Amino acid sequence: MKIYLANPRGFCAGVNMAIETLETSLELFGTPLYVYHEIVHNRPVVELFSKRGVKFVNSISEIPEGSTVLYSAHGVAPLIREESTLRKLRAIDATCPLVTKVHNEAIRYAKEGYVIILIGHEGHDEVLGTMGEAPHAIHLVEDIEDVENLPYPNDVKIAYLTQTTLSVDETIGIIAALKKKYPTIAGPAKADICYATQNRQEAVKQLSPNAQIVLVLGSQNSSNSQRLAEIARQEGKKAYLLDTVKELKKEWFSPNDTVLITAGASAPEQNVQEVVDYLRTEFDATVESFVVREEHVSFPLPRELRGLTVIGKV
Q1: Which CATH architecture has domain 98-181?
Q2: 224 is in an annotated binding site
Q3: Which residues bind dimethylallyl diphosphate (predicted)?
Q4: pTM value?
Q5: CA angle, corner 46, sides to 64 and 238, nearest 5?
Q6: What residues does each domain of the chain span?
Q7: Which of 83, 126, 133, 230 is catalytic?
Q8: Residue 310 binned pLDDT confidence (cut-offs 50, 70, 90)
Q9: Quick one: pLDDT band at residue 314, thresholds 50, 70, 90?
């Protein structure tokens, strides 16, 4: 058996920042420490922090007054920030800067009187946060049929934005349909698709033709992880999305298979290596790493933590 390791894979800069923010907050403030929604969409990561005393909540009302709350990498709506202020919470914002960029674009377009079409998945944390910036002005679409059903006349002042974790392939047709229906539609200066999302997808597209099976480490509620598995299946490959090695089934594999392994932007590298170790043990697999694109992006800790010192650390 051969294992092809896709690069880049796993944690992106936004996820690294969010997890480092939570680690630092634990050291600074201790527990109980609250996170509004999952810090990132990865079950093992959430379970690990839960065991350390972090409490993940779906409503600000669940948090006792005066406590510390972190906002997840996916961002939150202004209403959530207002609720935190009313409860006198110490709020630490771990929103990915690329998501913040989309929020700022929504605010700008709304102030300028645009109707905003947001391309995204209904119910996704990032979509809820973005729509919350201008709920009166934003209309969500998920596919081309939704575009065809938009009620606005073609001379309306209209703009579009996209959820960052969608694939380019997933949005290109929708954007084309929007531009056909609304020839004067405005859009962001740069595509809102996250660099990490795009890079991981390109790696799967380039490397999957040489594999029989594609394993994607990531959680079922991770949009970008789901897309990686879908891309592999579109290439005609057997693709499995799994959180940990415990979900592997030996009958998936044959001794002569070539297995491509990648990971969504919120999946820890440890989970990848455990799968590699399993295949090495069970099938005497050899490992080859392929770099499709280098990544050198990093984001600083939120301003709420800058300048604070953890006891015992300089």
Answers
A1: 3-Layer(aba) Sandwich (3.40)
A2: yes
A3: 41, 74, 124, 222-224, 266
A4: 0.91
A5: 150
A6: 2-11+195-291, 13-95, 98-181
A7: 126
A8: low
A9: very low
